[in-house]
Design goal:
Elements: H1 15-19, H2 28-37, H3 44-63, H4 73-84, E1 96-101, H5 107-114, E2 117-122, H6 127-137, H7 148-151, E3 160-163, H8 186-197, E4 201-207, H9 217-229, E5 232-233, E6 238-241, E7 249-250, E8 252-260, H10 297-312, E9 321-322, E10 328-329, E11 342-344, E12 366-367, H11 371-377, H12 390-399, H13 403-424
Parallel strand pairs: 1-2, 1-3, 3-4, 7-10, 9-11
Antiparallel strand pairs: 4-8, 5-8, 6-8, 11-12
Helix pairs in contact: 2-3, 5-13
């Protein structure tokens, strides 16, 4: 087959599929990229039937040749190059397999690939996060994990399930707080996959508030389901702070770890703080930051008045300026997420506004952190591509996991699994 133009997964837009009543966009790119990522191992068979169907339709559409029935090696090689020519490809000699649920921009994936892992399934519903994920890992996540159509693509025989699932209350009044009582929540979908696929280990991450959420009933139900309904050894969850693992951010999150009971694992020790002292200066932009990140005088005045009003009531709410020698507050989406992490940077030379602001750019050097600085606060290297607008980038990094803390905990999990494997040989 002679190619008329270079194929691209991003042009895999569903035009042909709409004519044939095949589900467009939600699954085609995800199936295709998952197939290509696993084409050299047995997991590819799980995606092969649908992937080849999509490929045939896509190549037919691109080449306007209705009698084409076989995907050429040329087409396949072009698409393979696209999924592999990324900043963070799968390790060549991977030693374990994992899946990434509620993946966001791939904080779990980055951490586990560094430890020698291969991701065999990813799910993330947000379109902008999918864009960032694809740019860095060459793979398009599947969408809504609550849909059976999505769950059917989860393969068998992976070692570790990772999920930073959202926190929701369960309706468990008068009930035992078991598997069935979690229906209608996103944890139920995680639990259902664990029940179906029986991975060796699980690694869940959530906000610190999960511990007391719904009067403690939410966490109690989660632990009851994992321990009793699903038969996993689950030690007491622990609050892990990102600042203890090499990034200058005071970010506390609850980690829940579990091991399938037949592995015989009965003890687990969460990672200790590394004792590495870091500060904002370690991740601060090295070059002059664009003027758009500096606050206007009028907005700064508003923030000061807001803080003064709360201070008069005895509250500590309001903006905060992080010194170069300090560490950031937890970066979060919405509210005062960015204003709680303002910094001083006197390197600005051009005070001409580059965005529509009220008033002039402040002369005190007060600015927001940049998306790249937020990326560094979460432990993402500078090679990590940010292909989206700032507003989406802040949301994505604010919702992400702290990569070094995830990596340190995952290493502990893998050490136990590998030790168990060695004993069985």
């Amino acid at each position: 087959m002679k190619m008329k133009e270079k194929l691209s997964i991003n042009e895999f837009d569903g035009k042909k599929f709409k004519e044939k009543a095949i589900e467009p966009n939600d699954y085609n790119k995800a199936v295709l990229t998952h197939y290509l990522h696993n084409i050299e191992n047995g997991v590819a068979k799980h995606y092969e039937k649908d992937a080849k169907k999509y490929l045939e339709d896509f190549v037919t559409y691109k080449n306007n040749s209705e009698d084409l029935k076989i995907v050429s090696d040329v087409a396949l090689q072009q698409l393979l190059f696209e999924v592999k020519d990324v900043p963070f490809p799968t390790p060549e000699n991977y030693t374990f397999k994992f899946i990434d649920l509620f993946a966001g921009i791939g904080g779990f994936r980055l951490a586990l690939q560094r430890l020698g892992g291969k991701c065999v399934f990813t799910s993330e519903w947000d379109a902008n996060a999918q864009k960032t994920y694809q740019a860095n890992y060459g793979e398009v996540p599947f969408g809504d994990i609550t849909k059976e159509q999505t769950k059917k693509y989860v393969p068998d025989n992976f070692d570790l399930l990772c999920a930073g699932f959202p926190c929701q209350a369960f309706s468990i009044a008068g009930k035992r707080g078991g598997f069935e009582d979690t229906r209608g929540t996103l944890f139920f979908d995680v639990a259902e996959i664990i029940k179906m696929k029986r991975p060796k280990a699980i690694f869940l991450e959530n906000v610190k508030g999960l511990r007391n959420h719904n009067g403690g009933k939410t966490l109690a139900t989660i632990l009851n389901v994992l321990r009793n309904d699903l038969d996993y050894f689950v030690p007491e969850p622990q609050i892990i702070n990102a600042k203890d693992h090499g990034v200058p951010q005071n970010r506390e999150r609850i980690y829940i770890v579990g091991f399938r009971n037949d592995l015989g694992i009965t003890e687990f020790e969460y990672p200790k703080p590394k004792g590495i002292m870091v500060s904002f200066a370690d991740i601060k932009e090295k070059k002059v930051v664009p003027t758009k990140y500096y606050l206007s005088n009028q907005y700064l005045k508003t923030l000061r008045e807001h803080k003064a009003r709360h201070a008069s009531k005895g509250n500590g709410f309001g903006f905060e300026i992080i010194p170069d020698s300090g560490i950031a507050n937890a970066i979060v989406v919405g509210g005062m997420g960015r204003e709680r992490n303002l910094v001083l940077d006197h390197r600005i030379t051009d005070f001409t506004p580059t965005t529509h602001i009220k008033g002039e750019v402040n002369r005190e050097g007060i600015r927001k952190m940049t998306p790249r600085e937020w990326a560094r606060l979460q432990g993402f290297p500078d090679e990590f591509i940010i292909p989206v607008a700032d507003v989406s980038a802040y949301k994505q990094f604010g919702n992400s996991v702290a990569v070094p803390a995830i990596q340190a905990t995952a290493q502990k999990i893998l050490n136990l699994i590998q030790a168990t494997n060695a004993k069985r040989k």
